[in-house]
Design brief:
The protein is built from 10 helices and 12 strands. It has 360 residues and is of the alpha+beta class. The protein folds into 2 domains: 102 residues, Hypothetical Oxidoreductase Yiak, Chain: A, domain 1 (Orthogonal Bundle), CATH 1.10.1530.10; 202 residues, Malate/L-lactate/L-sulpholactate dehydrogenase, NADPH binding domain (Ribosomal Protein S8, Chain: A, domain 1), CATH 3.30.1370.60. Strands 2-3-4-11-5-6-7 form a 7-stranded mixed β-sheet, sandwiched between helices. Helix 1 packs antiparallel against helix 2. It is globular, with a radius of gyration of 20 Å. The relative contact order is 0.17.
Length: 360
């Protein structure tokens, strides 16, 4: 049973490759070029694989709705509009955020190989899924990745206020290790990302107290009533300050939307969001011996894991442990799709006249 006392339906397991194919086919059906559809689909499936289920296939219907309404450019000319040795600013031409940020990450890697560090910002982008997808792209090149973004809807007022002027404004960091898994932090500047609220609603689950409050300051635990309240920042006023700074770096610095200019893509499906994002690549080899750095990360991770635990704590973990383990398990067992979401995807497949994701 779930927390509301209702009988819970077990999730349906889907192979990664099948999920990726289904998503790509859906995008191709509404006119996205096949090569772009495959890129976006792979990143969305990867989000579900690692457990970021608020940013994976659950977003498909919303993305398709925006595409059909003209809110996303299916043939963007993604280009560099400002550039120096260790930085660049990309204009995404209102393309899918996944395409824009993949290009931004690739450019950051290219520049960091030469300069040691590179910062690439993006304007006129769109929602791109979980932050860690892009920070992780640096790991294959033995680099550190950092990512910042302005969220695609404001769910956070200034500390002590009621006007929604800030978003979840996520941060991600990916740091390579040697024998240990990489350290990967992916967090919103709110206690919970709004995608997690949407995922709870899709599964018919309640939220824990502490995620949201209503406009009278009372706990809000029903995700279906999310519009009646707002998300809480991490660490109280400190989280509010962090959300503001991240928004300035990812939005204002890039000439992208921030504050009152942020478009709520949940409600407005036709306007360009001008989403702002930034990706940073750091080459540890520019600071010293790469092998020594990775060995030092290994040592620190092992020291943390071996440190004394409080009573009833089964293990000390580091950021990225859960997503790493979940991805490994779901590659074998299949990706868990909530039964209610699968019903939505069944209806979507029927509307698009494509084979359903469900196989039985």
């Amino acid at each position: 049973m779930d927390r509301g006392g209702r009988l819970s339906t077990p999730p349906i397991r889907v192979d990664f490759g099948r999920l990726r194919y289904f998503i790509a086919l859906a995008f191709e059906t509404v006119g996205m070029p096949p090569a772009d559809a495959r890129v976006v689909a792979a990143l969305m499936a990867e989000a579900d694989l690692q457990g970021s289920d608020g940013h994976g296939v659950i977003r498909l219907a919303q993305y398709l709705k925006r595409i059909r309404a003209g809110g996303v450019n299916l043939n963007p000319q993604i280009r560099v509009v400002q550039e120096r040795a260790a930085m660049a600013l990309i204009d995404g031409d209102n393309g899918m955020g996944h395409l824009v940020m993949k290009r931004a990450a690739e450019l950051a890697i290219e520049k960091a190989r030469i300069a040691g560090v590179a910062w690439v910002g993006a304007q006129w982008s769109n929602h791109a899924g979980p932050a860690s997808l892009y920070a992780r792209m640096m790991l294959a090149h033995d680099m550190i990745g950092l990512y910042f973004a302005v969220g695609n809807a404001n769910h956070l007022p200034p500390w002590g206020g009621l006007d929604m002027l800030l978003s979840t404004n996520p941060i991600a960091a990916a740091i390579p290790a040697g024998e240990e898994p990489p350290v990967v932090l992916d967090m919103a500047t709110t206690v919970a990302a709004y995608g997690k609220v949407k995922a709870k609603a899709a599964r018919g689950e309640m939220m824990p107290e502490g995620w949201m409050i209503d406009r009278e300051g009372k706990p809000l635990t029903d995700p279906r009533r999310a519009a009646e309240g707002f998300l809480l920042p991490i660490g109280g006023y400190k989280g509010y300050g962090l959300a503001l700074v991240v928004g300035l770096l990812a939005g204002t610095l890039n000439g992208a939307a921030m504050g009152k200019d942020v478009i709520d893509f949940n409600q407005d499906v036709s306007s360009a969001t001008n989403t702002g994002q930034a990706i940073v690549a750091i080459d540890p080899a520019a600071f010293g011996d790469l092998a020594q750095f990775k060995s030092a990360v290994d040592k620190l991770v092992r020291d943390l894991r071996a440190s004394e635990r409080m009573p009833e704590v089964d293990a000390i973990r580091v950021p990225g442990d859960r997503s790493h383990a979940l991805a490994a398990a779901q590659r074998v067992e299949g990706i868990a799709i909530a039964a209610s979401l699968m019903q939505t995807l069944d209806r979507l497949a029927e509307q698009l006249d494509i084979p359903p994701l469900r196989t039985n």
